[in-house]
């Protein structure tokens, strides 16, 4: 089996044993999800790159010193937890974590392909997008986290479960509660969601 085909756990073992290339394979394998997760939280490419690099400095330090690492086949979840802690540290002084991105934003309406939308329809869709993000921001943290990871980071429920450290059933339950809460707020405030 080629080294690039090895499971994460074996690559981690190889890296700890001195094979520097094993970490490069792990980084290449997971960088888009890790980078995407960080960017979804910080909305700034420079800050994202800084946190991404700092995340892997911590990964390297932890693996090299063999401290506090109990992988159990969940390397990506472990790295995402490190990134999440660094993001929290970064925004602790600001007292807020931005939800919106400046550019290249993943839109709830990104699957709409009608390029002939008139200006008024585009404005309505933009306003609905803003309203929806504001509602998501008001969800309890565990529900908001699942919604963000599922719809903005395109993570599977298994990946979300691994990251958050709860069962897949709990993750699905949080999503169900989030959707119920979103629906109630949308109906209560009579927010129009274009089909």
Automatic annotation (TrEMBL):
InterPro entries: RNA_pol_sigma-70-like, RNA_pol_sigma-70_dom, RNA_pol_sigma70_r2, RNA_pol_sigma70_r4_t2, RNA_pol_sigma_r2, RNA_pol_sigma_r3/r4-like, WH-like_DNA-bd_sf. Residues 26-95 form the RNA polymerase sigma-70 region domain. GO terms for biological process: DNA-templated transcription initiation. Residues 132-170 form the RNA polymerase sigma factor 70 region 4 type domain. The keyword Transcription applies. Keywords: DNA-binding, Sigma factor, Transcription, Transcription regulation. It comes from the Bacteria. GO terms for molecular function: DNA binding; sigma factor activity. Belongs to the sigma-70 factor family. ECF subfamily. This is Sigma-70 family RNA polymerase sigma factor. It comes from Flavobacterium silvisoli.
């Amino acid at each position: 089996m080629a080294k690039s085909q090895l499971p994460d756990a074996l690559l981690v073992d190889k890296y700890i044993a001195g094979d520097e290339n094993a970490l490069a394979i792990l980084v290449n394998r997971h960088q888009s999800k890790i980078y995407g997760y960080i960017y979804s939280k910080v909305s700034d490419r420079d800050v994202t790159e800084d946190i991404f690099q700092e995340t892997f400095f911590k990964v390297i330090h932890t693996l090299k010193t063999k401290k506090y690492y109990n992988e159990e086949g969940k390397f990506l979840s472990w790295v995402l937890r490190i990134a999440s802690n660094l993001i929290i540290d970064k925004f602790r002084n600001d007292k807020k974590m931005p939800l919106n991105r400046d550019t290249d934003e993943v839109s709830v309406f990104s699957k709409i392909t009608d390029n002939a939308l008139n200006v008024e329809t585009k404005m309505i869709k933009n306003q609905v997008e803003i309203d929806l993000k504001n509602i998501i921001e008001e969800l309890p943290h565990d529900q908001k986290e699942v919604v963000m990871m599922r719809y903005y980071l395109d993570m599977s429920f298994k990946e979300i479960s691994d990251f958050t450290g709860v069962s897949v059933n709990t993750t699905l339950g949080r999503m169900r509660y989030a959707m119920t809460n979103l629906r109630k707020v949308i109906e209560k405030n009579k927010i129009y969601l274009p089909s």
